[in-house]
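Retry 2 of 3 after timeout on previous attempt. Resubmitting C-alpha cells to design endpoint.
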C-alpha cells in the first residue's frame, strides 16, 4: 500500500514551475505542467545541490524535462532520467491530486 502525504495545494505551484517540499529528510521537487504534476528528487546529482525545484521546465526531444540551474543537465519529469548521461537518473516519486491537495508517495515504485 502506498503512503500519501499532502505537500501543498494545487495553486501553491505556478503552472510550468516547480516548488520544493521536505518529506521527512527527503527534499522533493514538485512540478506543475498544465494540469499534470511530477515529483523528483530536489538534488542535482552533478552539483550535489538541492536546486532542481528552481530549474527551468521545458520540453526536449519530445520529453518534459527540468534543466538543472547549476550545470544545465536535463532530467525527464516522468522518470528522472538525465538526457545528457544515460547512466544517471534521479529518484522520481508518485504524485496525485486529492481535492485541491497535491500528495506525494515516497514509496518505491
Ligand atoms: S513511473 Fe517511471 S519507473 Fe515509476
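Retry 2 succeeded. Sequence:
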Amino acid at each position: 500500500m502506498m503512503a500519501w502525504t499532502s505537500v501543498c495545494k494545487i495553486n501553491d505551484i505556478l503552472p510550468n514551475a516547480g516548488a520544493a517540499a521536505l518529506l521527512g529528510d527527503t527534499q522533493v521537487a514538485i512540478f506543475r505542467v498544465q494540469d499534470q504534476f511530477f515529483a523528483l528528487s530536489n538534488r542535482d546529482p552533478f552539483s550535489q545541490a538541492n536546486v532542481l525545484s528552481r530549474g527551468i521546465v521545458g520540453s526536449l526531444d519530445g520529453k518534459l524535462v527540468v534543466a538543472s540551474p547549476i550545470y544545465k543537465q536535463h532530467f525527464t519529469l516522468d522518470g528522472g532520467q538525465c538526457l545528457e548521461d544515460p547512466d544517471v537518473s534521479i529518484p522520481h516519486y508518485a504524485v496525485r491530486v486529492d481535492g485541491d491537495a497535491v500528495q506525494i508517495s515516497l514509496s518505491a515504485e
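Attempt log closed. The first strand starts at residue 5 and ends at 9.
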